[in-house]
């Protein structure tokens, strides 16, 4: 079998696979595009890339070119010549006509995503992930053949929102691989949509995959990267959400002063309008109750006694509502904070209720937290 350009160039440079991986990651850092994956993961993927059995994702193109000192064409990254497609021009035209999109079609997709979002809050990820991931695949396929224009950008935004939801569900199921991949799809859609708020959201949310993998410093870097771009173009409620997310990453890293600073900023940035969402941000639910829950979660991580007050305040607004997974998380946090204060009996009550809610929603993520708390 003929060697692929990627393998041939590595061999010409006399690099072992491990040396190539180190150069690749260093080049990605220098380009400001750090690769938040392990050497083992890249090593596994490189076997497929060098065999030609899988396409090298676009995010690796520039780092590979810099590491190997070759152009995209020399590494085999150029698009396949149009003459090599099996489809004739007329076949492709027919398909383009078949997948032509307009604002009404995009609205249908967005409504479907919103329905999944509402169901997810009540039923949980386990019962919906297969449907939402199929929904993402359908939008992604439509986008591949959609003609350029405003409708395509709207469809790209719809893809970002749907895949971010699916990615969050995968994370709740403790499926890190699918969670990361769904967020990669979300970022691709967000970039094409040219919507800074959506791009910031899906980029920062991907940090939670790293956080759950106990890599808080890298998670913080990802959130800070999301916050560093186009701040003046990002919706105020989203800016508040991003600040709170940074607070959580800092709490996980043990940065006490940084946590308080970020959480105070989130509170200042939160709009005063009633409700927990904006029409421009249908994927984001954030109000004073959610922010109190978030603050309580961060302070519980730090072992701060005041976490109990914030969490009790949040639970008064969450209990019995649709945000059952959020309520489960708040009760785990409250149990943790109460246990730290020596209130074992009250802590057990909240842990038991959290376990019931996690069972109802199938939240493997919350169940793992409960198990850790009980050990």
UniProtKB/TrEMBL annotation:
Residues 366-375 have a biased composition (Basic residues). SUPFAM superfamilies: TPR-like. It comes from the Bacteria. Residues 343-356 have a biased composition (Basic and acidic residues). Residues 343-375 are annotated as: Disordered. This is HTH cro/C1-type domain-containing protein. It comes from Actinopolyspora xinjiangensis.
């Amino acid at each position: 079998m003929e060697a692929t350009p990627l393998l041939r160039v590595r061999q010409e440079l006399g690099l072992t696979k491990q040396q190539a991986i180190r150069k690749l990651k260093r080049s990605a850092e220098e380009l400001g595009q750090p690769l938040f994956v392990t050497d083992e993961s890249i090593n596994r993927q490189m076997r497929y890339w060098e065999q030609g059995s899988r396409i090298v994702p676009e995010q690796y193109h520039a780092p590979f070119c810099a590491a190997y000192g070759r152009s995209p064409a020399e590494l085999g990254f150029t698009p396949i010549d149009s003459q090599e497609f099996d489809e004739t021009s007329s076949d492709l035209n027919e398909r383009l006509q078949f997948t032509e999109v307009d604002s009404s079609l995009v609205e249908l997709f967005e409504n479907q995503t919103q329905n999944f979002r509402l169901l997810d809050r009540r039923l949980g990820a386990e019962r919906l992930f297969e449907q939402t991931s199929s929904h993402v695949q359908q939008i992604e396929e439509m986008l591949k053949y959609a003609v350029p224009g405003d409708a395509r950008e709207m469809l790209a935004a719809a893809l970002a929102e749907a895949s971010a939801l699916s990615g969050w569900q995968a994370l709740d199921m403790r499926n890190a691989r699918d969670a990361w991949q769904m967020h990669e799809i979300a970022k691709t859609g967000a970039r094409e949509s040219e919507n800074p708020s959506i791009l910031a959201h899906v980029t920062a949310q991907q940090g939670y995959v790293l956080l759950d993998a106990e890599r808080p410093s890298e998670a913080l870097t990802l959130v800070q990267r999301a916050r560093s771009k186009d701040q003046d173009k990002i919706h105020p409620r989203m800016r508040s959400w991003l600040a709170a997310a940074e607070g959580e990453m800092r709490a996980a890293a043990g940065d006490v002063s940084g946590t308080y600073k970020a959480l105070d900023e989130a509170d200042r940035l939160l709009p005063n309008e009633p409700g927990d969402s904006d029409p421009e941000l249908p994927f984001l639910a954030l109000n004073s109750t959610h922010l109190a829950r978030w603050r309580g979660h961060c302070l519980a991580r730090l072992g701060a006694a005041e976490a109990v007050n914030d969490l009790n305040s949040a639970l008064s607004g969450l209990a019995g509502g649709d945000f059952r997974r959020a309520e489960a998380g708040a009760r785990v946090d409250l149990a943790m904070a109460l246990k730290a204060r020596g209130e074992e009996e009250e802590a057990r009550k909240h842990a038991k209720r959290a376990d019931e809610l996690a069972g109802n929603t199938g939240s493997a993520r919350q169940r793992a937290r409960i198990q850790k708390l009980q050990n």
